[in-house]
Amino acid sequence: MICASDSLANDGKGIRFEIATECGPQSAFVVRHDGKAYAYLNRCAHIGIELDWRPGEFFDDSGLYLVCATHGATYQPDTGTCIAGPCRGARLTQLAVYEQDGGVYLNRE
Predict the structure, then answer these.
(1) SS3 content of the chain, % helix, strand, coil (to 5)
(2) pTM above 0.90?
(3) How many whole angstroms separate alpha carbon 24 and alpha carbon 68?
(4) In the list 29, 48, 67, 77, which could disulfide-bond 33, CB 3.0-4.6 Å?
(5) Does residue 94 sit in helix, strand or coil?
(6) What topology does CATH give the domain 3-106?
(7) pLDDT digit string (tens) for 46-99?
């Protein structure tokens, strides 16, 4: 389990976690937007640095978009598509997650 479902407020603070990859552990995060959980690798599509400006702070002030704290790349939270900034049109690497029995889980299939 990544986290409890009720620990993710809609358009609020995200939860950071790590996943194992062929290249070793990678930082990832999950947020809730429009009532649904979305997860991504915590790597900006521009230069591959972590997005959050403080741990778990991924949304902009409006709560509508995910934003990279370093260069301001702005992403749609439901698709990970960059809509503004230096990597417009690129995408965050999305991870499949699901909610069950009050928890958010990474789909490993």
Answers:
(1) 5, 40, 55
(2) yes
(3) 23
(4) 77
(5) strand
(6) Rieske Iron-sulfur Protein (2.102.10)
(7) 998 999 989 999 999 999 999 999 999 999 999 999 999 999 999 999 999 999
